[in-house]
Amino acid sequence: MDEDKEEVDNPVECAFPKPAFFDLSPIKGGLLFKQSTNLVGSWKPHLFLLDGKHVFYFDSVQDKVPRGAFHIGDCKIEDLPDLARERRMYCFSVTTKSGWNFHQNKAFVNRVYVFSTPSFQEMSDWMCILNAMGQLQEDALLLT
User: Fold this and answer.
1) What pLDDT, in 10s, does the model give residues 4-54?
2) I need a surface site. Which of 8, 30, 93, 139 has the fewest CB within 10 A?
3) 70: which DSSP letter?
4) b/e sequence 40-53, b meaning 16+ C-beta within 10 Å
């Protein structure tokens, strides 16, 4: 997955707000397992919050600053049934054109995030809301 990812040093190209946890008014939130992009590909739970334009993720619910964020207006969301059988959980991916890692202070383009959830309903809810909010973002751009 790292070969598809390109780092960008200019934060202007990927300007994300850096909210405190309590400053967000999320439309949806919850814990998702995110696959790491390292060679091991370990899975760790993160708190995810969708504010309508971005998805912010935190290492834990106690964190006040997100670990990262990505814009949902340009995302591609896919179900991953083969990985789901292997993990015995429900898996999906989000491919985004713009994202930001707050810990490294780096922007990312063309990044693939892989998630798993313990239930089909939870996966379906996340995929539906991300698709719907992404479509709203695209429609808003067309109107401007």
Assistant:
1) 444 444 443 344 555 555 566 788 999 999 998 776 778 999 999 998 888
2) 139
3) E
4) eeebeebbbbbbeb
For residue 30, the tally of other CB atoms under 10 A from its CB is 14
User: Of the candidates 47, 51, 9, which has an alpha carbon nearest to the alpha carbon of residue 30?
Assistant: 47
Q: Which CATH number fits domain 2-143: 3.30.565.10, 3.50.50.60, 2.40.70.10, 2.30.29.30?
A: 2.30.29.30
Question: pLDDT digit string (tens) for 78-124?
Answer: 999 998 888 889 999 999 988 888 888 888 888 999 999 999 999 99
Nearest to 98 by CA among 11, 1, 6, 14: 14
* Helix ranges restricted to H, 7-78: none
**Please, which residues bridge with residue 106 across strands?**
101
pTM over 0.90: no
**How far is it between the farthest Cα atoms of the chain?**
44
Q: Helix/strand/coil (H, E, C) string of 74-120?
A: CCEEEECHHHHHHHCCEEEEEEECCEEECCCCEEEECEEEEEEECCH
Q: State the pLDDT at residue 65.
A: 85
